[in-house]
Specification:
Elements lengths: L22 H8 L19 H13 L21 H7 L2 H4 L11 H18 L3 E3 L5 H18 L6 E5 L5 H8 L3 E5 L9 H7 L4 E7 L11 H10 L3 E5 L12 H4 L3 E3 L2 H4 L14 E3 L10 E6 L2 E6 L15 H37 L4 E2 L9 E4 L1 H7 L3 H10 L6 E2 L8 E4 L7 H20 L1 H6 L11 H6 L8
Parallel strand pairs: 2-3, 2-4, 4-5, 5-6
Antiparallel strand pairs: 1-7, 6-7, 8-9, 10-11, 11-13, 12-13
Helix pairs in contact: 3-12, 5-12, 6-7, 12-15
The structure holds pyridoxal-5'-phosphate.
């Protein structure tokens, strides 16, 4: 039976517990710690044995779902399996015990990793300079937008607006607004691409930048990317590439070659750091030469066979985080990139496309899609017709997926497609997993039509049923009630 008590309630005075309130231990402590620093109050800590602690946390962890427990096709987020060897290497005691204040001579190896990883990412993105400072994609966006602002200040120009497609991830307009810009929305055409005519109408000398996710959140590679870039270049609008979907074109093409000025990369999506639950992440930002002087933090360079960190120019946007980077995330990216090499990177990108297109090809005869254009590493299913006809919601459908042992795909995003599921299988899944998942989606569609109540009551197999997401975040009830 599962014990529903919190660990603080599991006080059973086991004979094998370790007591933090032991008086003799306190006496012992006095030998080492000045009296005034010793707490004499009795702490409310559970007196339980080691194996009970272990069981408590292992049981809790078993209630969780992650990429190590099952398929997690969360569109836009790239929840792929990350090789454990990378974790092992990043967890090496030489790395985890080194301190950013260490003497530079003692951490030359760490600097070498930063230097080499920077060069690899510049090669992968086709850009000229890079900072590891941002801790996530959204933090990279904010950094990039500060850089755009600094660029126009430097040129003595005042530009107030950032262009953002209506299919964009919510962080794009949020970051633009945080950086002090106003936003102007570019419409998508009926196929889901950026509407070139709308773009032409909206470009002018008051536009500072255009933030583009490519492939976009419908999983479509912008067919007219050259034209989009040229239209912006005519007005010196800085082109920002949201690199969250890097999986789709890794080793195949490069934002730098497409003409982009700034690119962020989510190391925790594409380059081997598991994510979710708040971190750690890393969102390095790479730029073209003309923006290099505005980069934040310090730069890593190699001089006379030695690596060192040097200050950026006086035009730098300044500091956006402490020290240099989420270093352990950079190590994992470095190992990942070097194990794959150029050929392996290309293969990774191609298999991400193959897996997505394979799944799409099975589902094509059973569902409607957000767009009928050729998909890349992810695609969007539109359930609107079914939902209206059989009176269920996309949430009902998504919750039923949980009962079959999968994490649900992203729902209700992108905002331009109603009642949608956004599916990204990633390159790390087998054909068998994709076949089984497709079969389940088709089965749930049948259930939705024939036994709608099954969907409405789902999930029935998970530790908790439907929770009020908003309330759960604001007023969490951490105690499990039977
Ligand atoms: C995930 C994502 C972001 C934000 O990245 P974080 O690392 O979560 O801050 C931005 N844009 C797109 C398209 C994304 O998928």
């Amino acid at each position: 039976m599962i014990d529903p008590n919190l660990i603080f309630e599991k006080n059973n005075n086991s004979i094998s517990y370790f007591s933090f309130n032991n008086k003799t231990k306190k006496k012992e402590l006095k030998k080492y710690i000045p009296e005034k620093f010793i707490n004499n109050e009795t702490l409310n800590l559970p007196n339980i044995s080691e194996n009970q602690v272990l069981r408590h946390y292992i049981n809790l962890s078993n209630k969780n779902f992650g990429i190590d427990t099952g398929f997690y096709p969360l569109g836009s987020c790239t929840m792929k399996y990350n090789p454990k060897i990378n974790e092992k290497i990043a967890g090496n005691s030489s790395f985890i015990n080194s301190h950013p204040y260490s003497d530079n001579n003692r951490i030359q190896g760490n600097f070498e990793i930063l230097f080499e990883c920077k060069n690899a990412l510049l090669e992968i993105t086709g850009m000229d300079d890079l900072t590891f400072a941002p801790c996530a994609g959204a933090h990279g966006e904010l950094t990039g937008l500060y850089i755009i602002r600094a660029y126009f200040n430097y040129k003595n120009e005042k530009r107030e607006y950032i262009l953002i497609p209506d299919s964009a991830h919510g962080t794009n307009p949020a970051s633009a607004s945080m950086a002090g810009f106003k936003t102007s929305t570019i419409k998508s055409d009926q196929n889901g691409f950026i509407d070139i005519n709308d773009l032409k109408k909206k470009v002018n000398k008051n536009i500072a930048g255009f933030m583009i996710t490519n492939p976009n959140t419908l999983g479509l590679f912008e067919k007219n990317i050259d034209e989009i870039v040229n239209i912006c270049k005519e007005h010196d609008i800085q082109l920002y590439y949201d690199g969250a979907n890097f999986n789709a074109f890794l080793g195949i093409t490069r934002p730098g070659d497409m003409g982009f000025d700034i690119v962020h990369i989510n190391l925790h999506k594409t380059f081997s750091t598991p994510h979710g639950g708040g971190g750690p992440g890393s969102g390095p930002v790479s730029v073209k030469k003309h923006l290099s002087i505005f980069l934040p933090g310090k730069n890593i360079i190699q001089e006379n066979y030695k690596y060192k960190l040097i200050s950026r120019s006086k035009y730098s946007i300044g500091k956006i985080r402490s020290f240099y980077s989420n270093f352990l995330v950079v190590i994992k990216a470095y190992v990942y990139i070097y194990i794959l090499g150029k050929d392996g990177s290309l293969k990774t990108g191609l298999i991400a496309l193959l897996n997505s297109n394979y799944l799409y090809s099975i589902l094509k005869d059973h569902f409607k899609f957000g767009s009928n254009e050729h998909v890349m590493h992810e695609f969007v299913i539109s359930l609107t017709d079914l939902c209206n006809k059989y009176h269920f919601t996309v949430m009902d459908f998504a919750k039923r997926i949980l009962d079959y042992g999968y994490h649900s795909p992203t729902v209700s995003f992108p905002l331009i497609i109603k009642d949608c599921l956004m599916i990204e299988p990633t390159e790390t899944e087998s054909k068998k997993t994709l076949d089984e998942f497709a079969e389940i989606l088709i089965k749930i569609k049948k259930e939705a039509i024939e036994k709608t109540d099954l969907l409405k009551d789902s999930p029935v197999t998970t530790p908790v049923k439907r929770i009020d997401d908003v309330k759960a975040a604001r007023f969490p009830i951490l105690k499990y009630e039977n």
